[in-house]
Amino acid sequence: MLLGDTCTRGCRFCAVKTAAQPPALDPDEPMNVAAEVASWDIDYVVLTSVDRDDLPDGGAAHFACTVRYLKQLRPSPSAVVRNDRPDPLPTIRQSARVTPRPLFVECLVSDFAGNADAVQCLALSGLDVYAHNLETVDRLQRYVRDPRASYKQSLHVLSLAKQFNSQLVTKTSLMLGLGEAPAEVIQTMRDLRERQVDVITLGQYLRPSKHHLSVVEWIHPDQFAEYRRIGEKMGFLYVAAGPLVRSSYRAGEYMMTRLLQQRELASRGP
Fold this sequence. Notes:
This protein has 270 residues and is of the alpha/beta class. The protein has a single domain (29-268), classed as Aldolase class I (TIM Barrel). 38% of the residues lie in helices and 11% in strands. It has nine helices and six strands; from the N terminus they run H-E-H-H-E-H-E-H-H-E-H-E-H-E-H. It has helices spanning 29-38, 60-73, 90-95, 116-123, 141-144, 151-164, 182-194, 221-234, 250-268; strands spanning 44-48, 104-108, 129-131, 169-176, 199-204, 238-241. The chain has a six-stranded parallel beta sheet, with helices on both faces. Helix 1 packs parallel to helix 2, helix 4 crosses helix 6 and helix 7 (182-194) packs parallel to helix 8. The longest helix has 19 residues, at 250-268. Its cofactor is [4Fe-4S] cluster. This is Lipoyl synthase, mitochondrial. It comes from Cyanidiococcus yangmingshanensis. Pathway: Protein modification; protein lipoylation via endogenous pathway; protein N(6)-(lipoyl)lysine from octanoyl-[acyl-carrier-protein]: step 2/2.
């Protein structure tokens, strides 16, 4: 998790600590994270963070810098990178224990307050998957999320990411059991597909403490299976749906890796 451990927002489902002015960013974090992660024996990594509304770009440049460093250490040829800053990586290359194969990078990020420049900065950093969670259906947004977040803004951010980089896989997640109706979930899935969102995960909301939103309904596994069937029919490249599914679901990451590897091979041509 980048950008510190303190969030500037207070969503009613989340147990992360909050503050209006979190501690300053660690300028060495992008380089240190890249050097460490590049040494791991993994093919797929999810970088996520708290919301940082106190920063002009919401932390997008910090994220993008981390991704660029990772991709220089463990590149994937199909990644789209706009490298507009100095490259301090030669010293890292000499000391880092780098696993010699491509690393696919997913960034699960905030809405950056709808800042198009921030979205573009990250979308062109070389990442493979741009993830931003819609969390719930339109009607429940103000009840579930911080007032600074909105259904329309989240959809716009996901759409912008694809516009800035058509090669990106875009991804989102919904928590179910908060009082939404099946028709609302299906409409949300339609809205996402209209913005060319590629991947969706749907899981059961679990209350982190008695101070957070209560569970309204326990969704039956058969209903999750029906959402998966509907999503696949709509054209999502991948749908993970089940009571214990989360936005960084392990089986989902496996399928995402396969999807990205197939794209990688296709980009190389015959």
